[in-house]
């Protein structure tokens, strides 16, 4: 689910993602974390905390002239996502040219919101922090960027939000507050247990952060309710109160809480970057504030209609055509050859498919996925090998004894041979690419994906398939796959039709792409 096109319109990374090759050539500390993909593109592994930190520090230096230090054991922010929040605050306070005063609740070791706000807009910040390590790093980052006149970092007691932080400033009126609440209520939630939809793929980037940064009693829901409680006492001491949320399910109960408390002005938005989504909530007790409109449902529907796609470059098409010929394909067109290879992979994965009419120079397949066979295939193959090792060995017998084997022996032999053969043919693990700052997935923009655990599951014994995919009553999703010639390259598009979860189609799209890339790499 690539959502970069839904980033804030003023976000500098919306239409121009970072150039990893250029940054690597300019910054040696970043260069060691940039690798080359199978397609020759520079990539970064977002599972490595050192790589994430190097990218964040490099972007802040290159695009904002900021030099910061972040310890690996504390939260490492991603710059594009933080920029979304900064730009939305600009919208809330109606402009960025006038001097503004803001509060960053829990600024973190990076102190990224105050540093960006002060550098971009000249905003004054009161940045609070409860963690000793984060406080020391934040103070150092402010001082080494000569921003002490605009950013004041203060150490506050545990569980302090707004009330205690403003005790000494009884007359000061602030324009806004910002906050990244701790998302999780306990260690299990932080690890994704019982807090993540089972159908969603695992996060594509590493989760870093200290205990106070990622966990709080009651999670983000109770944390933000405490901010709401403080705002009911402070009221017009701040023109806008705002928080960023990590879970969409937190938004509705918090809006309901504000409604019950009679807060007059409430709005929300979405922050999108790659496969990462965050939600933000803001409220005000002022009658004269301009309330930005929430995201429209129409925009969401338009996003959903965009196909997933990836491109097979001309350089690898000859190898793919040779592979298709080895399978008995007599067609000369790259489109037809790629279609044959895709059909072979779909058959191995037990994804129902049939060809449907389409334009000339194209091929189109209607897919119905009944079960998820393209994820966690490596574990399945390991289990299968273990079972094979545990099978009792047949006693040694001569040709005469073999010729006397009973029919009952043959099925077992066939199953064993079949399983062994399929094991040999099952694709190996293919590591995909991380190209977005906090995400990686097969995308509408053709960006690469992180497939840490998506080898083939083709080694399972195929089940009997219905004659027509359209007759299946219970399925995961249905989609239309198009193979299209575009100049010298071939593009594969997958258009969502219906189903349980679009992310499942995303996984399959990435699996198909990596399978084709592996074929080229082996040739």
Automatic annotation (TrEMBL):
| UniProt xrefs under Gene3D superfamilies | Vaccinia Virus protein VP39
The entry's localization annotation reads:
Cytoplasm; Nucleus
Query: Which keywords accompany this UniProt record?
Result: Cytoplasm, Methyltransferase, Nucleus, RNA-binding, S-adenosyl-L-methionine, Transferase
Question: Could you tell me what this protein does?
Answer: RNA N6-methyltransferase that methylates adenosine residues at the N(6) position of a subset of RNAs and is involved in S-adenosyl-L-methionine homeostasis by regulating expression of MAT2A transcripts. Able to N6-methylate a subset of mRNAs and U6 small nuclear RNAs (U6 snRNAs). In contrast to the METTL3-METTL14 heterodimer, only able to methylate a limited number of RNAs: requires both a 5'UACAGAGAA-3' nonamer sequence and a specific RNA structure.
Q: Where is this region: Disordered?
A: 377-468
Return the protein name.
U6 small nuclear RNA (adenine-(43)-N(6))-methyltransferase
CDD domains (UniProt xref): AdoMet_MTases
Q: May I have one GO cellular component term?
A: nucleus
The keyword DNA-binding is annotated on this UniProt entry: no
Q: Which organism is it from?
A: Oreochromis niloticus
Q: What is its main location?
A: cytoplasm
Which GO biological-process labels does this protein carry? mRNA processing; positive regulation of catabolic process; positive regulation of RNA metabolic process; regulation of mRNA stability; rRNA base methylation
What GO annotations for molecular function exist for this entry? mRNA m(6)A methyltransferase activity; RNA binding; U6 snRNA (adenine-(43)-N(6))-methyltransferase activity
- Where on this chain does S-adenosyl-L-methionine bind? 82, 106, 129, 180
Q: Where is the composition biased (Basic and acidic residues)?
A: 385-402, 410-432
- Record-stated family: Belongs to the methyltransferase superfamily. METTL16/RlmF family.
Q: What is its EC number?
A: 2.1.1.-
Listed InterPro entries: METTL16/PsiM, METTL16/RlmF, SAM-dependent_MTases_sf
């Amino acid at each position: 689910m690539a959502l970069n096109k839904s980033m804030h319109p003023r976000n500098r990374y919306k239409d121009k993602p970072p150039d990893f090759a250029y940054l690597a050539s300019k910054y040696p500390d970043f260069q060691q974390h940039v690798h080359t993909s199978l397609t020759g593109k520079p990539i970064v592994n977002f599972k490595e905390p050192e790589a994430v930190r190097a990218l964040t520090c490099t972007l802040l230096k290159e695009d904002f002239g900021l030099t910061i230090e972040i310890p690996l054991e504390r939260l490492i922010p991603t710059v594009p996502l933080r920029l979304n929040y900064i730009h939305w605050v600009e919208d809330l306070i109606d402009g960025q040219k006038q001097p503004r005063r803001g509060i960053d609740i829990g600024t973190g070791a990076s102190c990224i919101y105050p540093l960006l706000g002060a550098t971009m807009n000249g905003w004054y910040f009161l940045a609070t922090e409860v963690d000793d390590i984060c406080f020391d790093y934040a103070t150092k980052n402010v001082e080494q960027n000569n921003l002490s006149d605009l950013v004041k970092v203060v150490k506050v007691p545990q569980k302090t939000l707004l009330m205690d932080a403003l005790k000494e400033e009884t007359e000061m009126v602030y324009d806004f507050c910002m906050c990244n609440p701790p998302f999780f209520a306990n260690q299990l939630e932080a690890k994704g247990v019982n807090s993540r939809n089972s159908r969603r793929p695992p996060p594509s980037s590493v989760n870093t952060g200290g205990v106070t940064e990622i966990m709080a009693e009651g999670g983000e829901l109770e944390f933000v309710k405490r901010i709401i409680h403080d705002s009911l006492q402070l009221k017009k001491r701040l023109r806008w109160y705002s928080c960023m949320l990590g879970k969409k399910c937190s938004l509705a109960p918090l809006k309901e809480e504000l409604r019950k408390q009679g807060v007059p002005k409430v709005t929300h938005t979405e922050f999108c970057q790659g496969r990462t989504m965050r939600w933000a909530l803001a409220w005000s007790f002022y009658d004269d504030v301009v309330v930005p409109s929430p995201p429209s449902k129409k925009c969401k529907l338009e996003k959903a209609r965009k196909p997933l796609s990836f491109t097979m470059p001309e350089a690898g098409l000859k190898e793919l055509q040779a592979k298709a010929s080895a399978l008995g394909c007599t067609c000369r067109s790259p489109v037809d050859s790629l279609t044959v290879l895709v059909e072979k992979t779909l058959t191995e994965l037990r994804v129902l498919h049939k060809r449907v009419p389409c334009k000339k120079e194209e091929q189109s397949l209607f897919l119905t996925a009944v079960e998820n066979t393209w994820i966690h295939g490596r574990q399945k193959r390991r289990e299968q090998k273990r079972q094979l090792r545990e099978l009792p060995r047949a006693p040694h017998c001569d040709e005469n004894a073999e010729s006397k084997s009973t029919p009952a022996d043959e099925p077992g032999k066939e199953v064993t041979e079949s399983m062994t053969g399929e094991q040999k043919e099952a694709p190996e693990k293919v590591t995909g690419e991380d190209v977005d700052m906090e995400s990686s997935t097969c995308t509408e923009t053709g960006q690469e994906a992180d497939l840490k655990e998506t080898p083939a599951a083709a080694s399972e014994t195929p089940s009997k398939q219905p004659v027509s995919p359209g007759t299946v009553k219970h399925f995961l999703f249905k989609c239309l796959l198009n193979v299209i010639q575009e100049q010298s390259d071939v593009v594969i598009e997958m258009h969502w039709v219906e189903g349980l979860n679009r992310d499942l189609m995303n996984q399959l799209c990435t699996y198909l792409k990596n399978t084709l890339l592996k074929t080229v790499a082996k040739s």
